[in-house]
């Protein structure tokens, strides 16, 4: 199997699996229990918090463990909305956010909040000046993702951070779920108040993630109960998952530079080779090494259907995806590609190839070989059918 769908999820690192197994077997106590077994679990949480905080250059007290990226985004947005509603009810985000931000904004709109969805250019990038122009007296939050999950475009987070900082009553949330482990992620240097991470995108476990909450920011908790995680997120913590998340974060950060150089080299090679060998292929997003993440490559084959390409590649043992995993079963063309100006036909014929720390040279070359094998006959068939 050639797994090239790492933006959907990654295979857990064997060291992560080992840590989680050890914790499940040996440290099954409830971290809130007073006895020694509870104390051991609590110490594991403390160590995990410290380790993850170190990878981000933040204080351990600023991390809230969640059930993954979706919950972290929900907690950030709804937590600010409800906590600061007297200050204002206006949010700013972009047209290309993941559903875990976009749909929360839609839900807030139904509850009476106003949301500005900023447009992006043809590479999928939002302009900082548009963020500046959209900020109003009643704006409470700006939410912009770091790396787009469908096309890999990197957003100008430090520039936006500087703009938001000029407005002390506006918070800045960043969904860094696709960038951690591939690009430097430094919330404090960038003026970020809230930032979401998810373990399964960097060879950690599924169903566990965290939200960075800058000290001084208050959130209205979305899950109430026993008051765990400083009251921000009640529920007995997923101790094995959190231990696995910390192990994965440390490994990802240790390997980050090497991973980025390797994947970036392969991405550029795929761009060159596929453009040379395939007819009528469009490469989406920012394809430069500075402006695009090293691991995501979005390709469009106008006239073809992405599901057909995905299944044809699967027959060759190569796994890729159409748009984002959560929306790939929908019939509609991708909202993100449409926001970048692609027409329906081009958007419908798009696939995403995404690499990870475990991707090998062999995977990349087998993937290119499979693409050059399956695409031309599909294009010929489509041409024949449209005559
Ligand atoms: C950019 C982005 N945000 C949020 C999420 C949701 O994260 P999770 O799957 O951990 O809920 C994803 C996952 O696809 C993502 O790519």
From TrEMBL:
<dbReference type="InterPro" id="IPR015421">
    <property type="entry name" value="PyrdxlP-dep_Trfase_major"/>
</dbReference>
<keyword id="KW-0663">Pyridoxal phosphate</keyword>
<dbReference type="Pfam" id="PF00266">
    <property type="entry name" value="Aminotran_5"/>
</dbReference>
<dbReference type="InterPro" id="IPR000192">
    <property type="entry name" value="Aminotrans_V_dom"/>
</dbReference>
<dbReference type="InterPro" id="IPR016454">
    <property type="entry name" value="Cysteine_dSase"/>
</dbReference>
<protein>
    <submittedName>
        <fullName>Cysteine desulfurase</fullName>
    </submittedName>
</protein>
<keyword id="KW-0479">Metal-binding</keyword>
<dbReference type="GO" id="GO:0046872">
    <property type="term" value="F:metal ion binding"/>
</dbReference>
<feature type="domain" description="Aminotransferase class V">
    <location>
        <begin position="2"/>
        <end position="365"/>
    </location>
</feature>
<dbReference type="InterPro" id="IPR020578">
    <property type="entry name" value="Aminotrans_V_PyrdxlP_BS"/>
</dbReference>
<dbReference type="GO" id="GO:0031071">
    <property type="term" value="F:cysteine desulfurase activity"/>
</dbReference>
<comment type="similarity">
    <text>Belongs to the class-V pyridoxal-phosphate-dependent aminotransferase family. NifS/IscS subfamily.</text>
</comment>
<keyword id="KW-0408">Iron</keyword>
<dbReference type="InterPro" id="IPR015424">
    <property type="entry name" value="PyrdxlP-dep_Trfase"/>
</dbReference>
<keyword id="KW-0411">Iron-sulfur</keyword>
<dbReference type="InterPro" id="IPR015422">
    <property type="entry name" value="PyrdxlP-dep_Trfase_small"/>
</dbReference>
<dbReference type="GO" id="GO:0051536">
    <property type="term" value="F:iron-sulfur cluster binding"/>
</dbReference>
């Amino acid at each position: 199997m050639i797994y090239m769908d790492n933006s959907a999820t990654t295979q857990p690192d064997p060291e992560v699996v080992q840590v989680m197994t050890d914790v499940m077997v040996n440290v099954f106590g409830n971290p809130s229990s007073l006895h020694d077994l509870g104390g051991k679990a609590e110490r594991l949480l403390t160590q995990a918090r410290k380790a993850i905080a170190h990878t981000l250059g933040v204080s351990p007290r600023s991390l809230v463990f969640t059930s993954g990226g979706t919950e972290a985004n929900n907690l950030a947005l709804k937590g600010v909305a409800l906590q600061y509603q007297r200050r204002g009810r206006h949010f700013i985000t972009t047209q290309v956010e993941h559903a875990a931000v976009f749909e929360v904004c839609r839900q807030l709109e139904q509850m009476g909040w106003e949301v500005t969805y900023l447009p992006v250019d043809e590479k999928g990038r939002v302009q900082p000046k548009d963020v500046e122009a959209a900020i109003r007296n009643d704006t409470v939050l700006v939410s912009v993702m770091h790396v787009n999950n469908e096309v890999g475009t990197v957003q100008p987070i430090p520039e936006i951070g500087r703009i938001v900082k000029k407005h002390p009553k506006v918070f800045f949330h960043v969904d860094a779920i696709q960038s951690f482990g591939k690009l430097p992620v430094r919330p404090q240097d960038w003026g970020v108040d809230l930032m979401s991470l998810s373990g399964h995108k960097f060879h950690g476990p599924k169903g566990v993630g965290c939200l960075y909450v800058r000290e001084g920011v208050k959130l209205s908790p979305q899950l109430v109960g026993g008051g765990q995680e400083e009251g921000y997120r009640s529920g007995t913590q997923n101790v094995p998952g959190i231990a696995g998340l910390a192990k994965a974060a440390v490994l990802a950060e240790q390997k980050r530079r090497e991973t980025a150089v390797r994947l970036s080299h392969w991405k550029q090679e795929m761009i060159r080779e596929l453009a040379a060998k395939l007819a009528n292929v469009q490469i989406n997003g920012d394809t430069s090494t500075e402006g695009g993440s090293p691991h995501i490559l979005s390709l469009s084959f106008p006239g073809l259907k992405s599901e057909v390409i995905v299944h044809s590649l699967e027959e060759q043992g190569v796994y890729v995806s159409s748009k984002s995993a959560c929306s790939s079963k929908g019939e509609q063309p991708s909202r993100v590609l449409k926001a970048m100006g692609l027409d329906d036909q081009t958007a419908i014929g798009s696939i995403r190839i995404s690499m990870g720390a475990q991707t090998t040279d062999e995977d990349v070359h087998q993937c290119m070989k499979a693409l050059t094998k399956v695409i031309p006959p599909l294009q010929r068939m489509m041409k024949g059918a449209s005559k």
